[in-house]
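Before anything else, study the sequence and fold tokens given here and see whether the fold suits the sequence. Record follows:
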Amino acid sequence: MKNKKSNSWQEAYDAIQDLILSSRIRPGEMITETGMAERLGIGRTPVREALHKLEQDGLIVTENRRKYVYLLTIKEIGEIFDIKIGLESSICAWAAERGTDEQKEQLDKILEEMRNLITVRPSAGESEDLWFKKWVEKDDELHQLIFKMAGNKRAANYLNNLNKQWHRLRIGLLAMEDRIEKSIAEHELFVRAIIEGDSGNARENMRIHLLNLKRMLVQIFKMFNYPTD
């Protein structure tokens, strides 16, 4: 019975998180236990537990006893990326120093798969949405391998949780003209440095990559009049 309850909670958590990260539930939208339970076909108790955990993760907030999908501010996206720049740059340096030859070969293979994806990018429509999803999945695979190579699970777990807070913005960012081409060029630099064991360049090239992402996100937020703080 205990395992069944645990599984129900995890099922609710995963389902609601996916709805949020895929923007099927949008930032600022109100979310209720009853509504989610009916939508998912799950009892209210596991939904309540899932919402509590999602609030701890920073994806949901409570205001006046009502729960809403969290809406990032311009200041907060800046704070998130300040942390990412400091920590993820160090992770790249550690990966260059600690990664095995086998891991570096796998990193090179994933990067090649990302290059190949660019050559088969479809035109706008449902097929392009699926293509963007494949790109994000491959990008996640590459970064998770870098985290593993760095050998610091605590830092990786912290970044994975932090990344959830801005994940839903990634598709919109990638859809911008030439952004994926620029992104793969930036990935080439820090991945190549990791493979070559050059921790200094791995750190610096990741820092530049994240600074570019930060600038673009802040510009988008300002364009669409997101709250400042």
Remarks:
- The beta strands are 30-31, 60-63, 66-69.
- The two ends are 45 Å apart (CA to CA).
